[in-house]
Amino acid sequence: MLPQPEQRRDADTVAGRLRSRIRVGVAALVALLLATAVIALQPGELDNRLREADALKSSNYARFAAMLGEMDAADQPLSPAQRQYLNYLKAWERGYAGDYEAAIPLYKSVIAESDDSVLQFRATASLVSNLTIARRYLEAYTYLDLLVERMPQTTDLLAREQGLHAAALLNNQAGQYELGLDFSTRLLHERMGLRGECIARELRVESLYKSKRLEPDGEDVSFAIEACQRHGEAVFASIVRSFQAHAFIDKARYREARDVLESNYEEVQKTRYLRIISEFDVLLAESYWQLGDLPRARNYALRAIDKRLPKEVTDSLVAAYRLLYRISLQQNDTKSALAYHEKYAEADKQNFDDISARSLAYQMARHQATATKLQIEALNKQNQVLQLEQQLGAKAVETSRLYIALLIAVLLMLVLWAFYTKRRQLYFRRLSQRDGLTQIANRPHFLEASARALDECRRAGGEAAVILFDLDHFKVINDRHGHAAGDHVLRKVTAACRTYLRPEQYFGRIGGEEFAILLIGYDEARAVALAEQLRRAVTAANADGAFGEFSVSASFGVTSTRKAGHELRQLLACADAALYQAKLDGRDRVATFDGSPATVAATPLHAQRDRLLGSVTPLS
Ligand SMILES: Nc1nc2c(ncn2[C@@H]2O[C@H](COP(=O)(O)OP(=O)(O)OP(=O)(O)O)[C@@H](O)[C@H]2O)c(=O)[nH]1
């Protein structure tokens, strides 16, 4: 409950007008003085003054209002934080003055624009109270939810005090007394020994009274009054006393109720808080009615109606009209009784509507909060599903990447394996085609490759020649100088001959110490010239005597396709016939095939040749 200033009515009299003029003059003078004082106000000082005004706003309203006037009148630039703080205090002042329609938007602007979470929280708490008094209950309970939600994060003690106060107050008003008691107990624990203790105890007394558990002369009441007096909170002390008086009346202890009210009547007047003043009046009226003092009862009931806030229907107003109706009835004033009854019925209906509206708003706010919570939960679930989907997507991408990496690795291995296999194949093929000792083509490869080349040559209508040569008396070299020396001679001779041959010319070892050369595109004369060169190269193979004191020579047989045709076997046979002739003629020479098939036919086979020629010629 926010305190309200007393509404004064100036009588339309000369005296009234005179008082007005004096008041205007004094106000102008004060404003001038304040403006002068404020112009000199420093920014740090302004912060201090804002805090000072804030601290005494409920204990010394007049001073607070004056300070606010000073700060507002000052034409001083304010920081955004100072502007919001001042707006908050202005809203509070408007609410205190009962101008809720001005206070509410100011509070909302502070909540929306301030960067200070504590100030936002305090503005929310005050807004909740103002909305309640303005009967905008649904909004009030909606902001209350916001307040309760932010409570755990709010550590500022003053702000928490306001928040817990608003929460306890609104729950009491919605008939949620257990919740009201809970919030007021929390406030009491947090603010024991401070101003908040008074507010907490007052709210506790209210919850207990409304749930019909208040003992009017119990500790709850006495402790609450003591705490509020200790902190100079006359308004709250008076509210506690009003509940105490209610409880006394409920227990038919009318004298005690009257005594409490009368002995504190002056103090409550000083608060200028119309709600509680009116409450005291109606409770006194009730007490005197019950004690049989009708004039006093009537007097207080009328005062209660007179002091009420304009347009506001309260329990006190309803009770005052009801009492006046009953007094009039007892005094047999039927006309007044009827008039008061009408007012009583109207006020009672309005009050009942107001209570129902509060209760309905509370339920609607609960409903809205539950719906919002469910919506948030649904959104959270949706969010979780989306996150899971994203994670699954990421996993799928990761898995695909792994598969791709694995595939690439397998492909690379296959390529490497194919490459390696191919290389091994080529290596083994080359190995199978080469003569191990001399590294030139072996007999099968020479025969196969030469046959193919000759075939192509024949198809192309080209000419070719064959040179066949055999080392002379090689057996003697082996016998006298050893097989290793023979091997060396074979390698040396081969290497020497290769220097005269081009890579595309076919050179093969077709027997132990017998070699053949196919020369595509050569006629016999060119082949003979080459054979001569080779013969000299063979002779020079051991000229330096590297393998011992012996000479090396070879006999050469040459023929060409013109004489022997393109068939390899025939060419070799003809070249062999020429070679045999060279051996017969004394070795170390080049002989050509004479072109006669009879010569070929007369040439003995190798084995016979060995027997025929082996012993004939000695080694030089
Ligand atoms: N060191 C060595 N000797 C071989 C190799 N292949 C064959 N021979 C030898 O070559 C010799 C060939 O001898 P023969 O056929 O009688 O011919 P030759 O002694 O050269 O006499 P002519 O051909 O008549 O001049 C044999 O003693 C074989 O053992 C080989 O790879 N290395």
Automatic annotation (TrEMBL):
CDD domains from the entry?
A: GGDEF
Q: Which SMART domains match?
A: GGDEF
User: Per the UniProt record, which residue ranges are transmembrane?
Assistant: 21-41, 402-420
Task: Please provide the record's keywords in A-Z order.
Answer: Membrane, Transmembrane, Transmembrane helix
Q: State one molecular function term (GO).
A: diguanylate cyclase activity
The record's listing under InterPro entries reads:
Diguanylate_Cyclase, GGDEF_dom, Nucleotide_cyclase, Rev_trsase/Diguanyl_cyclase, TPR-like_helical_dom_sf
Reactions it catalyzes:
2 GTP = 3',3'-c-di-GMP + 2 diphosphate
How is this protein named in the record? diguanylate cyclase
